[in-house]
Automatic annotation (TrEMBL):
Residues 1-77 form the NB-ARC domain. It comes from Humulus lupulus (European hop). The lineage of its organism: Eukaryota, Viridiplantae, Streptophyta, Embryophyta, Tracheophyta. It comes from the Eukaryota. GO terms for molecular function: ADP binding. This is Putative RGA. SUPFAM superfamilies: P-loop containing nucleoside triphosphate hydrolases. One of its GO terms (biological process) is defense response. PANTHER family: ADP-RIBOSYL CYCLASE_CYCLIC ADP-RIBOSE HYDROLASE (PTHR11017:SF573), LEUCINE-RICH REPEAT-CONTAINING PROTEIN (PTHR11017). InterPro entries: Disease_R_plants (IPR044974), NB-ARC (IPR002182), P-loop_NTPase (IPR027417). Gene3D superfamilies: P-loop containing nucleotide triphosphate hydrolases. Pfam families: NB-ARC.
Length: 78
């Protein structure tokens, strides 16, 4: 910890995101899973990608996961 990995991940994401149809960065993944569980994290991930409040994975798959270029950056993952 403490060497700027999160900052580096953010810079790479910002510089690369224009090359993708959708993308998101999730920070503190380990902490979020410990606090709220992996299902909550997965729904948050889908909401960020699909901009849908319900985090419906089936809807997200139909709407945007098919034949799209996606960028996922997960920070602090064990």
């Amino acid at each position: 910890g403490g060497v700027g990995k999160t900052t580096l991940a953010e810079v790479v994401f910002e510089r690369s995101r224009h090359q993708f149809d959708h993308g998101c960065i999730l920070k503190n993944v380990r902490e979020e899973i410990e606090k709220n569980g992996s299902n909550h994290l997965a729904k948050d991930f889908i909401k960020r990608l699909s901009r849908e409040e319900n985090g419906d994975l089936d809807y997200a798959k139909k709407r945007m996961l098919s034949h799209k270029k996606l960028l996922f950056v997960l920070d602090d993952v064990d």
